[in-house]
Amino acid sequence: MKKVKGIILSSLLISTFASLASEDLHNKLIIQAVPKSEGTVVIEGQPKYEKTFNITVVSKVKDPIDLSGFIGCYRAFDEKGKEFDQRTVQSDLLGSLKHGIAKVGYVSFISDNDSVYNAKFVKWSTQCPHLPERLK
Q1: How many CB atoms lie within 10 A of CB 130?
Q2: Which residues pair with 108 in a beta bridge?
Q3: According to the 3-state scheme, what is the secondary structure of the chain?
Q4: What pairing do the DSSP bridges indicate for beta strands 29-43 and 46-59?
Q5: Closest by alpha carbon to 105, among 65, 71, 57, 49?
Q6: Which band of pLDDT confidence, cut at 50, 70 and 90, is reported for residue 113?
Q7: Does the model's pTM come out above 0.90?
Q8: How far apart are the two ends of the chain, measured CA to CA in Å?
């Protein structure tokens, strides 16, 4: 029983640490976003508005940062703080980000209305509506 409690406690501590580590990534990243295009897309019969940015991501810290789709996603937001869901991300923008090496690519964001066209900024966030689960 003690062994089971120890395993559960260790698992909780590790998941809490991983969650806290990914939460404060916004303090460790510089993300430059340049608008690329605005358009529309129909997904499963539902019309959506889409805005795409060319982005460059640089780490401010020496340790590598994990930018995986399992722990976070890119989110666009406007000057009032309204956020928009990521639709597509170029795979070059994911994976391990090492100090001094920039990742460059594009990310597109969608919305049910044209307010996504007001998005001006991009950040890395753990508040993602469709994070995939890791394979066990």
Answers
A1: 9
A2: 52, 88
A3: CHHHHHHHHHHHHHHHHHHHHHHHHHHCEEEEEEEEEEEEEEECCEEEEEEEEEEEEEECCCCCEEECCCCCEEEEECCCCCEEEEEEECHHHCEEECCCCCEEEEEEEEECCHHHHHCCEEEEECCCCCCCCCCC
A4: antiparallel
A5: 57
A6: very high
A7: no
A8: 24
